[in-house]
Automatic annotation (TrEMBL), chain B:
Residues 22-218 form the ABC transmembrane type-1 domain. The chain crosses the membrane at residues 20-46, 58-81, 93-114, 150-177, 197-218. This is ABC transporter permease. It comes from Bradyrhizobium jicamae. The lineage of its organism: Bacteria, Pseudomonadati, Pseudomonadota, Alphaproteobacteria, Hyphomicrobiales. It is found in: Cell membrane. GO terms for cellular component: plasma membrane. The keyword Membrane applies.
From TrEMBL, chain C:
This is Sulfate transporter. Residues 1-23 form the signal peptide. Pfam families: PBP_like_2. It comes from Bradyrhizobium jicamae. Coiled coil: none annotated. SUPFAM superfamilies: Periplasmic binding protein-like II.
Length: 240, 230, 276
């Protein structure tokens, strides 16, 4: 296994993912470089989650290639992901985090200290001993963030991290994402909440039917969309 | 423990050999469950996580083996452990060790099949997370077994129930030797054949009581553990 | 093999081999019949033998056929059964060293109080069996190739009945031990041939009583043999021979004669009768 000096930038070169005769991602060309968060938007089924999985290395492209820091097949040492519905290990909140630390190869002596830090970062230190599966949806989402950050990632993928959360919980999660981004961790996030995209994004990538229809800085994308698809979508109309 | 024994002995109007029989029964069944778990849990977890040709067939076979006829297993183990058999030099036939071997053969498929089901369900839930954590196969299996531990207790209990209630295999390979390989179930069979039905029924009640007690203990432990770990 | 695997394997082996009461080094395995065990004879004589020699005798109670097979496979050190022709064959085939007559007991024909065949009190087993067949009264056969079963088949032959051909729905082969046969007869009020020892210690009699006893043809000779150490090196020939020698000694013979249930002697020692 070759380890690149950095797993960034992540470059998609003609990446296509097809399964059972359905094309989920179609000839994607995209570069994810260090910097402000990249937000993927687009209707349900547009391929956002699949793009994140390919970028994470969980899914191999059917055609095309993807490189991390210029290399192919790089194991995710410096990448982490929070799924839309993160699975909670049947352990305490703290044990969920220390499990991730162990998986990331962090020496055991540092587990207690790092677990404490991470739980504090996501505001769960008071719930450290609570069974993870007994936490609320927002708490589980924050615990999943702590678990992902335990990997000390250079890039963090988030798949609709605030879907189905109430505004208070959403704000808590967004605050963490902002804090993460300020630590120079590249955030790549899928959402279909425009407000969230505006609040967090540096750059926006819009997907439709597995294709990238438009990319741009957040301000220009929302204020002056270039493509009819983006205009329809942003106008709140059904994009078919 | 002593007060339990005297209580039991009272129930059976003071059979002095009873305690030894109960102890041997528990030892044989628990040892068989431990050995079967050492085989069955890793095997079940491996089948749950691995794709290979004929996997479906193996799963069907494993589920079918849960119903292995004890007499057939007893006979096979008898032939294997007999002095004239391939493993005869160990001199295990007509010893508690032979009974443990036979019951391990009976219980291992139960534990493996139930483990396979449990771990596979959990794997569907955990797959993305564990893969994203870049966990190797050993780490995955360890994490899944640990997190499924309370469900796996049920598999172990099913195995223990089978072992504790079983007579067909151990009477063949153990020989039902008084004071040496006589267990609760073989003693019940013997007392029935001697026409001493009240003693057989009494032994049966003690056996059922023990099985219930072990299940209650495991259940309590499971509930307490689940409350802590979710 | 890494350390962990090795430790687990050692622990697993310890579970199997270090079972409780496993460390009885001075012991022999005797394959014998359900009749000797169920009658309680071993419970009476083995403690005396153990007190004298320190040898533990582990009795595996089986049918005579199975007990001989256990010896043939080398899984017992001594075979103690009751079917003389089969025993002689065992020795002549080289599986047994030498056959010693030990004792005899007798068979009794057990039947329901109502006595549907009208044979109660008879001393003629052959006439009784003929009557059972003629009336079609229910009869339970062991059907398990045991010594008792072989004796029963022999008696039918003497009575001029070809039971394989003549048996009807009244003749039920259960393929089980003496106790199970008595339980079945008790539950269905049928006739059954039993050894006296098992009958005397049998508790679930229901309406069963002795119908026929005392016929010389009902005597049942027991023999004992050491399994050939030449066929099976694992045979504990010294300990096994010590047991046989004790059984046929005056001390052992007296112990056998002394065993009684309700004041009734079950087994009659006759080791000195070389023709038995």
């Amino acid at each position: 296994m070759r380890a690149p000096s950095s797993e960034l930038p992540i470059e998609f070169d003609g990446v296509t993912v097809a399964a059972g005769g359905v094309t989920i991602l179609d000839n994607i060309a995209l570069t994810l470089a260090p910097g402000a968060p990249t937000v993927l938007i687009g209707p349900n089924g547009s391929g956002k989650s699949t793009l994140l999985r390919v970028a994470m290395g969980l899914l191999a492209p059917s055609r095309g290639r993807i490189t991390w820091g210029g290399l192919e097949n790089v194991p995710p040492h410096k990448r982490a992901i929070v799924f839309q519905r993160p699975a909670m290990l049947r352990r305490s909140a703290a044990a969920n985090v220390s499990f991730a630390l162990r998986a990331a190869g962090v020496p055991r002596a540092e587990h207690a200290r790092r677990t404490g830090e991470l739980l504090r970062l996501v505001g769960l230190e008071a719930l450290a001993d609570r069974a993870a599966r007994r936490l609320s949806g927002g708490e589980q989402q924050r615990l999943a963030l702590a678990r992902a950050l335990a990997r000390d990632p250079a890039v963090l993928f988030l798949d609709e991290p605030t879907a189905s959360l109430d505004p208070v919980a959403t704000k808590a999660v967004e605050d963490i994402i902002r804090a993460v981004s300020e630590r120079n961790i590249k955030v790549v996030m899928a959402t279909h909440d425009f407000g969230e995209a505006r609040r967090l994004a540096g750059e926006v990538v819009m997907l439709h039917r597995g294709r990238i229809v438009e990319t741009g800085a957040v301000a220009s994308f929302f204020d002056a969309p270039q493509t009819p698809e983006a205009r329809t979508f942003l106008a709140g109309e059904l994009l078919i | 423990m002593a007060s339990d024994v005297s209580a039991l002995q009272l129930v059976l109007s003071g059979d002095p050999a009873l305690f030894a029989i109960v102890r041997l029964s528990l030892y044989v069944s628990l040892a068989a469950v431990v050995l079967a778990a050492l085989i069955g849990i890793p095997l079940g977890a491996w089948i749950a996580l691995t794709n290979f040709r004929g996997r479906q067939g193996v799963i069907v076979l494993l589920n079918a083996l849960m119903g292995l006829p004890p007499v057939v297993v007893g006979l096979a183990v008898y032939l294997a452990l007999s002095r004239s058999g391939p493993l005869g030099s160990f001199g295990l036939l007509f010893t508690p060790g032979a009974m443990i071997v036979a019951q391990t053969v009976l219980v291992a498929p139960i534990i493996a099949a139930l483990t396979r089901q449990t771990i596979e369900d959990l794997w569907i839930e955990y797959r993305d997370e564990l893969t994203a954590m870049n966990l190797g196969p050993f780490g995955r299996v360890a994490a899944l077994i640990w997190d499924a531990r309370f469900s796996l207790v049920t598999a172990l209990l099913a195995g223990f129930g089978r072992a504790a209630a079983e007579v067909g295999a151990i009477i063949i390979v153990g020989g039902n030797i008084e004071g040496f390989t006589r267990t609760m179930t073989t003693a019940i069979a013997l007392e029935t054949s001697k026409g001493d039905l009240p003693l057989a029924v009494g032994l049966g009640l003690v056996l059922i009581g023990i099985v219930i007690a072990v299940n209650a203990l495991a259940w309590t432990a499971r509930r307490a553990g689940e409350r802590l770990a979710g | 093999m890494n350390m962990l695997t090795r430790r687990v394997l050692i622990a697993a082996a310890a579970l199997v081999f270090a079972s409780p009461a496993f460390a009885q080094d001075k012991s022999i395995v005797v394959a014998s019949t359900t009749s000797t065990q169920d009658s309680g004879l071993f419970g009476h004589i083995l403690p005396m033998f153990k007190a004298k020699t320190g040898i533990d005798v582990k009795v595996v109670a089986q049918g005579t056929g199975q007990a001989l097979d256990t010896g043939r496979r080398g899984d017992a050190d001594v075979v103690f059964v009751h079917a003389r022709p089969a025993e002689e064959k065992f020795v002549s085939e080289g599986f047994g060293v030498k056959r010693y007559p030990v004792m005899y007991n007798d068979f009794v024909l057990i039947g329901p109080k109502s006595d549907p065949a009208g044979i109660k009190g008879s001393k003629d087993i052959v006439a009784a069996l003929s009557a059972i067949k003629a009336k079609g009264s229910d009869f339970i056969s062991r059907g398990d190739k045991s010594g008792t079963h072989q004796a029963e088949l022999n008696l039918w032959k003497v009575a001029g009945v070809d039971i394989a051909k003549d048996k009807g729905p009244w003749y039920k082969e259960i393929g089980q031990g003496m106790g199970a046969a008595l339980n079945t007869a008790s539950a269905s009020n049928a006739y059954v041939l039993a050894d006296r020892g098992t009958w005397l210690s049998f508790k679930n009699r229901g309406d069963l009583v002795i119908a026929v006893e005392g016929d010389k043809r009902l005597f049942n000779q027991y023999g004992v043999m050491l399994v050939s150490p030449e066929k099976h090196a694992s045979v504990k020939k010294d300990l096994g021979q010590q047991f046989i020698d004790w059984l046929v000694s005056s001390e052992g013979q007296k112990a056998i004669a002394d065993y009684k249930i309700n004041g009734e002697q079950l087994f009659y020692p006759n080791a000195s009768d070389s023709g038995a």
